[in-house]
Design goal:
Blueprint (H helix, E strand, L loop, with lengths): L3 H8 L9 H10 L1 E5 L4 E3 L7 E7 L2 E6 L5 E7 L4 E2 L1 H6 L6 E4 L3 E7 H10 L1 H27 L2 H12 L1 E2 L6 E3 L5 H8 L3 H13 L4 E3 L2 E5 L4
Antiparallel strand pairs: 1-8, 2-7, 3-6, 3-8, 4-5, 4-7, 9-10, 10-12, 11-12
Helix pairs in contact: 1-2, 4-5, 7-8
Amino acid sequence: MRSADAIESLRSIPLFEKVGEADIQRLADYLIERRYPQNSMIVEEGLPGDYMYVLQEGRVKVTKLSEDGREKILEILEPGSFFGEMSLLDRSPRSASVRTLDPVLALALSRTDFLGLLRNSSDLAMAVIQVLTSRLRDAGEHASSLSFQSVKDRTKGLFRRMAKEEASDGSQRMTPVLTHQQIADMISTSRETVTRVVKDLKDEGWLTQDGKRYVIPDEDF
């Protein structure tokens, strides 16, 4: 599947932004377009993985089961994100599940094609190393924040991480759609505590809300 849209989508992803033109076009050739309805499982924790995915339309949630069987949301991904690449590298079972929040259009790349490209592209191999290193660093920082930061600081940190520029003049940054329960899952606290903290942040003037999206001050970045 080679198209200008597919190549543009790949270029927008940190994993592929520094890959050479010939490699990115070969990569686009191997992509398979897949559509999933709302509330569909794309990746299931514990099962083998043969594909990585590039999200083009719709949102997904990345979840993991706790020891008592409850679902914990690790991340909410929007178009331009990718997931599932770890299993392509080490053939281990999926470490988390990915389920659609909306109807989704994704581009899938098989393990065989991905590893073939890695063997023949030093640029792609280096990009993978850099992204995996960054994800390990982020995981370490997240674990540290859960241990040492207050719930308010964890909430603000989550909003900073998930916010993106929304206004054309760059005057505000806005999160994706988030419920209090989703926020609570991602920072390991209760929904009631999130409700209280969000109210406090609004009262302090640091946070405003637009529907289920949260707006944070641009100067906070």
